[in-house]
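Per reviewer request, we include the raw input and output of the structure prediction for the construct analysed in the revised manuscript.
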Amino acid sequence: MNHDDYDDSYIRGILNTVKTIAMVGASAKDNRPSYFAFKYLAERGYTMIPINPGLAGKELLGRKIYGRLSEVPEPIDMVDIFRASRYALPVVQEALTLDPKPRVIWMQLSVRNDEAASLAEADGMKVVMNRCPKIEYGRLSSEIGWLGINSRTLSSKRAQLSGKGVQRMSLNRATLAGGSIARVVPEGEKTS
């Protein structure tokens, strides 16, 4: 897979299908980008699980903070890595030991580790690198377009509102390209 450029349907397919996101490197400091992304995604309906060994046992926005992925007592759909690139490989290696395994490994803006990506993809996971799910959600749902930012998404259809009060958009609209939600099948694995 080309990790320099992702098709919108690939990103939309991931964001439409994952429900539980474990954010490795989530911060409790409200001026940190990981805090913003955590809060934003939680407000969009994702079940967010903070992972931070230094804060294990405390709470972040009402959610218990775990020290490791393996301590989380519920299935994780996506692991969002908010750590430096050199830490991505150990995180992916730990994610591969989970049962069930996450379906997606997402590395934040400026985080890229091709070895970790290859390892995850070899096990059938989808991988996104050097992107932020908060920004991608806002771009694909047209929320950031309301602020005058070019979202690179053209559509004559009005985005669906989610919830009442503050205008929040959802991704639950069809795209012209469809939304790829299919699992990546590793080479040599049988499909039935």
